[in-house]
Here is the input.
Amino acid sequence: MELMMLRAKMDAIDRELFALLEKRMDVSAQVAEYKKAHDIPVFDESREEQMKANILFMIRPETADLLMEMYDIILKTSRDYQERTMEKDGK
Here is the structure.
């Protein structure tokens, strides 16, 4: 397959990926509102560990370490966004 075609495939995947990440951030803001209303802290270590364990069953072992690094960044970004959302609304 030609390099230009491979790059076009990656570009299409990136569009899908970022659309999904935007949706995830929207839900993260909703989670922040819930947590704020119920006085729940943003960080829940046991929940994150459970999420990571579930993800490991979805990915290939040869990419697991790299993808888990990305997932850690997604989780941190989600926490940061929740904190920002809660602060914006006066917490």
